[in-house]
């Protein structure tokens, strides 16, 4: 049968375990849980298999079929990061939700007293490269065609002008066309990359350039990166792009 590991507090893991124990045909067996809890946490019916940073090794070595995340006891950012670390492994993600009446699976809906949903219903899967490139390539071509005019305007107005700042970005459009950079994401030049597990690509325009502050803190940057990752779309890219161009061109140096 299929086996699963739970990621979250011991109390939530026990709640799921009891629901599965009372089910006539449970979809999987819960082998244990993973949590950042003190070692002196009272023992329950389920073994604590380790901390969240052990999850990838546990899934790989013990060949778990399912990973169930707690929706209440685990921040969404943590869930997203852990899912990203497991994307290359043959494992299904679920989330223990509070207000759903069923266990929703890929092929069937099983009645459980504790509700589960597919994790992707709460955390959408990453945007595909094809979808991103379908937006980026035509926009990058348009900006590349505009570059000679911006470069000429920059020579007239000086290196501190808005035209010069924008020309410094449009000059990077060949990197976008070659796939070396995304159009929107984070700028390596900022010196503040997002967590590596988030897999946010280096880009020409930084999502944080739409913030009202010119010098966002690391926490503000991560909040902006997380907002972008959880809502990626062509329309969001367009909004970030337009606002960034306006800020670059019209703001004072």
What does this structure look like?
By secondary structure, the chain is of the alpha/beta class. It has two domains: 3-122, 3-Layer(aba) Sandwich (Rossmann fold), CATH 3.40.50.720; 129-250, no CATH class. It is built from nine helices and ten strands. The protein has helices spanning 10-21, 55-62, 76-86, 119-122, 129-157, 162-170, 173-177, 218-230, 234-250, and strands spanning 3-7, 29-34, 48-50, 66-70, 92-96, 102-104, 109-111, 116-118, 182-185, 203-206. The protein has a six-stranded mixed beta sheet, with helices on both faces. A two-stranded antiparallel sheet has the order 6-7. The chain has a two-stranded parallel sheet with strand order 9-10. Strand 6 (102-104) and strand 7 form a beta hairpin. Helix 5 packs antiparallel against helix 6 (162-170) and helix 6 runs antiparallel to helix 9 (234-250). The chain is elongated, with a radius of gyration of 23 Å. It starts with a strand and ends with a helix.
